[in-house]
């Protein structure tokens, strides 16, 4: 039972640090949503990373976009990207060295007042490059670091919140990469680093918060000069609650998947060196004959700009059960799964789709073959009741037009990347789930992330899914329009 009197504050607050307001006259995200989801950089001439573009990256991925006030005065500050339970445990930090309009330093992003607060003065890009065993990070104008505050999620979900750290940060990452593409700023994912060094650079209390990954931003430039001495940093932070409950299992999972030295990071990353066989999921080996159901060619344009899609995005609370078109499902699946730039390969998770109401596709359970962009029929007939049951008996799982289940060969990932492999598969599932959100709202229908019965999901899709683990679920469909206003929209100046 939830203890509402200890619900964590929605924002991390440094009361003694000076506020640096971010500009609100942001670049327009006029690019179509599907174009923004395409892999690779959008142009051969990257845009300069200045404070306005940095502000756009922060606002459209981690900023507050809507505030809802409930009877009695309680407020929920909804963010640009979805989060389990609207708890928003993901925090954003910036290691800046050559960003026009801001001095070099290490900063925390405060979404509540749309500001930065400087934790360290000086250019620490070299320190970040050392922690990540990746010299290229010292040549990028800045890097965005995402972390997670454990208690903000474990307050509701307890130790199970460990996987939520990566679902939510992955969802935010999918949006961040799309925004970066839309404004012409190169960006990529870095998952390997010395955890203790990066946490120390950001001044994190490792018992309560841990860094998850880094995103270098901007085109390569001169290598950063030698970084200043990294002193112990322990700034005052307002407590999130009057009392916190510790979940050692979560902290142990983070510690046991941490890397302890630059040499270990290098060795870990070599798990994906060219000398190793490329990662590819052997999911099809569990089926003797594949009777592929081709999907229609995906649309090249969603019809909404990325800015409009993010503004309209929410988490659907009630599906109407109405059908979406096969082309709409095809487009959402295709654009969500085209890969991403990073230090680990894409394709660690497999998608299974329960089709309930999709025009032109028979109801039933399918596996999605992303290479062929086709569905593999597993069982036919009405699977709405089964889908709802699998999603912790939540009606949303069955009233959707289609529900997408993410599964992975976790044992294989752990063998290849050690305990950090668990982070990777949950992160990729969240990233693809976030892109499904954008693909759905870009086409004017809805989406919602759901929890599930782990073993029952695997059993339902077996023998095809035998040996895998359930990772994540995203439901897609027509939303029932709420008769009440959903809250005050936060607007920024400039075109959107």
Describe this structure in words.
β13 (364-369) and β14 (374-380) form a beta hairpin. A 7-stranded antiparallel β-sheet has the order 9-14-13-11-15-17-16, with helices on both faces. It has a 6-stranded antiparallel β-sheet with strand order 1-6-5-4-7-8. It has helices at residues 33-36, 51-62, 125-132, 150-157, 161-182, 195-202, 248-256, 262-269, 306-312, 326-336, 384-390, 396-399, 410-417, 420-442, 454-461, and strands spanning 20-21, 64-69, 75-79, 90-96, 105-110, 115-121, 142-149, 209-217, 293-294, 324-325, 349-355, 358-359, 364-369, 374-380, 402-408, 446-450, 469-477, 488-489. The longest helix has 23 residues, at 420-442. The protein contains 15 helices and 18 strands. Helices cover 30% and strands 20% of the residues. The chain is α+β, with helices and mostly antiparallel strands. α4 (150-157) packs across α5 (161-182) and α10 packs antiparallel against α14. It folds into 2 domains: 4-266, NADH Oxidase (3-Layer(aba) Sandwich), CATH 3.40.109; 288-477, NADH Oxidase.
């Amino acid at each position: 039972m939830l203890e509402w009197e200890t619900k964590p504050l929605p924002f991390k607050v440094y009361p003694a640090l000076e506020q640096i307001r971010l500009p609100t006259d942001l670049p327009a995200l006029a690019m179509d949503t599907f174009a923004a989801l395409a892999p690779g950089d959008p142009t051969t001439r990257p845009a300069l990373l200045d404070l306005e573009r940095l502000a756009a990256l922060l606002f459209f991925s981690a900023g507050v976009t809507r505030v809802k006030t409930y009877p009695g005065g309680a407020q929920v500050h909804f963010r640009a990207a979805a989060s389990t339970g609207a708890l928003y445990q993901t925090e954003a930090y910036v290691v800046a060295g050559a960003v026009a309009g801001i001095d070099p330093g290490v900063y925390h992003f405060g979404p509540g007042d749309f500001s930065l607060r400087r934790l360290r003065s000086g250019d620490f890009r070299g320190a970040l490059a050392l922690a990540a065993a990746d010299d290229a990070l010292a040549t990028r104008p800045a890097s965005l670091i995402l972390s997670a505050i454990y208690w903000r999620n474990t307050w509701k979900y307890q130790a199970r919140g460990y996987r939520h750290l990566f679902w939510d940060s992955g969802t935010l990452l999918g949006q961040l990469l799309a925004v970066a593409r839309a404004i012409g700023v190169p960006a990529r994912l870095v998952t390997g680093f010395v955890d203790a060094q990066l946490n120390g650079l950001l001044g994190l209390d490792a018992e309560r918060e841990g860094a998850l990954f880094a995103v270098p931003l901007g085109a390569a430039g001169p290598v950063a000069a030698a970084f200043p001495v990294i002193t112990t940093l322990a700034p005052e932070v307002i407590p999130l609650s009057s009392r916190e409950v510790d979940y050692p299992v979560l902290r142990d999972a983070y510690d046991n998947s941490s890397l302890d030295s630059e040499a270990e990071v290098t060795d870990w990353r070599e798990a994906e060196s060219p000398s190793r066989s490329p990662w590819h999921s052997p999911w099809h080996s569990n089926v003797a004959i594949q009777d592929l159901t081709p999907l229609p060619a995906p649309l090249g344009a969603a019809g909404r700009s990325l800015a409009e899609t993010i503004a309209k995005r929410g988490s659907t609370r009630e599906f109407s059960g109405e059908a979406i078109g096969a082309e709409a499902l095809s487009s959402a699946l295709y654009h969500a799964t085209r890969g991403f730039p990073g230090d680990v390969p894409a394709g660690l998770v497999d998608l299974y789709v329960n089709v309930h109401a999709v025009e032109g596709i028979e109801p039933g359970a399918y596996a999605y073959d992303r290479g062929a962009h086709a569905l593999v029929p597993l069982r036919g007939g009405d699977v709405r009741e089964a889908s709802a049951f699998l999603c912790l008996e939540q009606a949303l799982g069955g009233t959707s037009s289609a529900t997408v289940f993410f599964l992975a060969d976790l044992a294989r990932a752990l063998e290849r990347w050690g305990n950090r492999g668990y982070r990777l598969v949950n992160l990729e599932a969240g990233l693809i789930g976030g892109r499904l959100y954008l693909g759905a709202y870009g086409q004017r229908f809805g989406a919602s992330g759901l929890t599930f019965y782990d073993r029952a999901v695997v059993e339902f899709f077996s023998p095809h899914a035998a040996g895998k683990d359930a990772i994540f679920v995203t439901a897609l469909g027509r939303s029932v329009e709420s008769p009440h206003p959903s809250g005050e929209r936060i607007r920024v100046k400039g075109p959107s």
